[in-house]
Amino acid sequence: MKIWLILQTIAFESASFYLVFDKEMTPTLWVAFFTSHAIACASFTALSWILLPKKYKRPVVSSMSFLFFFNYFLPLIGMLGTACSLLVALYLPRKPNIVTWEECEKSPLPQNPGDEVNTQFGTGALREILLHNGDPERRLLAVGAIRHLPRQHAVPLLQLALKDLTDDVRLLAYASLESIETQINESLSLFKRQLAHQPSANKAYEVAQQYWELCYLGIAEGVLRKHYLEQAEQYLHQANVIQDSASSNLLLGRVLLEQQRPKEATIHLERALEGGLLVKQVAPYLAEAAYRSGDYQIAKQYIAYFPEQKGEKLSQIKEYWV
Fold first, then answer.
1. Where are the transmembrane segments (predicted)?
2. Distance CA 142, CA 109 (A)
3. Residue 104 and residue 130 in contact, taking contact as beta carbons nearer than 8 Å
């Protein structure tokens, strides 16, 4: 079959070129040329299709049409190009790479990771170093890098470092946590003085925000945490008395949720929603409040507003509930 197609291709293509170069062309001879060339292309297309690997044979119409028209509109050159491509692919295939690993240069741990939270030097990598690296110097270097991370990422890692068996690591972690707490307390004192000098909703909100941050970051615990939450609630109520705002109501709702008061939290969260905040900003807290109140249908309605990005905690909750 293959030999017959090869001979037929050579015969008809030779005949077509014989007509072009040996005789003065007339309309009849041009028709004969194109007919002979078409038969040669059809034969060569069938031959090429037979030689193609299985994965390139489907769909049949598309693959054969491409081969035919490519050879038809490029007389002789198209056939030579197709033949060379098939010969090279079939008899000189690329050798598979048997190396399954690549040696990489060891990357040093940065002293100032800055915004590299989502890179190989992010919180996950630093946590692994603190937990599993047996070299105290390496763990000490990790704590030094953690100090430059954003607070919400740094505090949990520093608290983990407080459990380290090496004194130097624990002391550096403690000093770093103490520094963060001092910064927040200094801001708190400043905002309180400004509020006392000139009462305003913004200043009351800033004071509450500092109290909330001490609790949110996990710096305050036990009775002290309870006291800070009460202080945050008090200043947020004061801010709302001066000027009711969506941001104050949102934070107040979160504070009340932390105090296990979901029904009161729902009132302020709904006011935040009415104040102009987007549903997706308030929905997680409204869903939490509804869940804690035992109203699972309402919780499910708010969960429907959660984002759908893969890997996000909220998207995982949404996938489970919805």
1. 30-52, 64-92
2. 7
3. no
| pLDDT tens column, 37-54 | 788 777 777 777 777 767
pLDDT at 204: 92
Dihedral over Cα of 310, 312, 318, 319: its sign: positive
Q: What is the DSSP string of 197-249?
A: HS--HHHHHHHHHHHHHHHHTT-S-HHHHHHHHHHHHHHHHHHHHH---HHHH
In sequence order, what DSSP letters do the residues of 131-197 get, joined into one string? HH---HHHHHHHHHHHTTS-HHHHHHHHHHHTT-SSHHHHHHHHHHHHHHHHHHHHHHHHHHHHHHH
Widest CA span of the chain, in angstroms?
A: 108
Contact 180, 151 (CB under 8 A): yes
The rounded Cα 156 to chain-centroid distance in angstroms is 23
In terms of Cβ atoms closer than 10 Å to its own Cβ (0-12, 13-18, 19+), residue 207 is buried
Domain residue ranges in the chain: 2-91
Q: What is the pLDDT of residue 115?
A: 46
* pLDDT for residue 278: 87
Question: pTM for this one?
Answer: 0.58
Q: CA 50, 55, 56 angle in degrees (round to 5)?
A: 55
How big is the chain, counted in residues?
A: 322
Q: Using CA atoms, how far apart are residues 124 and 235, in angstroms rounded to an integer?
A: 36
